[in-house]
Design brief:
2 domains; 4-stranded mixed beta sheet; YgjP-like_metallopeptidase; Putative metal-dependent hydrolase; UTP_pyrophosphatase-like; hydrolase; 11 strands; about 240 residues; hydrolase activity
């Protein structure tokens, strides 16, 4: 079953797949595609009704992907390319060296140095992925230690991974997953995302109590949230 979801900024194709399950699942794949997995017992009219009831949520995610695509940065992974690093723009410097593999940053010069025997696009990209993942992991550990005093429990596990659609998430077992690109944001924004997920260890939803807890620990969290919304499209390796 397919039909189009029309909204102010355009339209997106809705792809509905009926399966043997108890609940309906809706996910926004990109700015043009909405995937729906529906229980077999739901009629098509009811599926459309559920989607319409989720209009605000769906439009929010469609706009996010549209804005991300409009701000997409084409990179060659060569010297001169620009990358965010803890909120500042750094210039990439690629140096070929047959005996060394290393990625370093220079705060004063605002440069990222990638040294490697191979300087092809895929290898440089892979080295940068590893660099940002490690930088994010270090900063996340620091942030968790900073905020741990506010919580009676600890994360059961912290995983830094490549998440396309989320900055972070927290499971019901208090496993926290965070986007490896967070070291491209400011340290304050990274701390906000970490705190946001830690607060989900206490409140598994976005209730008033949840936001009160976030505000209690980080009174200026809204500024960080706004930065992320305004600059999220630039956070891409």
């Amino acid at each position: 079953m397919e039909f189009y979801f029309v909204y102010e900024n355009g339209q997106a194709k809705v792809k509905v797949d009926f399966k043997n399950r108890k609940s309906i699942k809706i996910s926004v794949e990109d700015d043009k595609t909405i995937n729906v997995i529906s229980p077999l017992f739901l009629e098509e009219e009811k599926v459309r009704e559920v989607i319409e009831n989720k209009r605000v949520w769906i439009e929010k995610h469609l706009r996010f992907y549209k804005e991300k695509l409009s701000g997409y940065i084409q990179r060659d992974y060569k010297s001169g390319d620009k990358f965010l690093y803890f909120g500042d723009e750094y210039s990439l410097v690629v140096d070929k060296n047959p005996k060394l593999i290393k990625v370093t940053s220079d705060y004063n010069e605002k440069k990222l140095y990638v040294i490697s025997p191979r300087v092809d696009k895929e290898n440089i990209k892979e080295l940068l992925y590893k660099f940002y993942r490690e930088e994010t992991a270090k900063e996340v550990r620091r942030a968790i230690n900073k905020f741990q005093i506010y919580f009676p429990m600890k994360p059961t596990e912290v995983v830094i991974k490549d998440q396309k659609r989320r900055w972070g998430s927290c499971t019901y077992k208090n496993k926290i997953l965070l986007n490896f690109r967070l070291s491209m944001a400011t340290r304050g924004v990274l701390e906000y995302v970490v705190l946001h997920e830690m607060c989900h260890m206490v409140h598994k939803n976005h209730s008033k109590d949840f936001w009160n807890l976030v505000h209690y620990i980080m009174p200026d969290y809204k500024e960080k949230s706004i930065w992320l919304k305004e600059n999220g499209a630039k956070i891409e390796v």
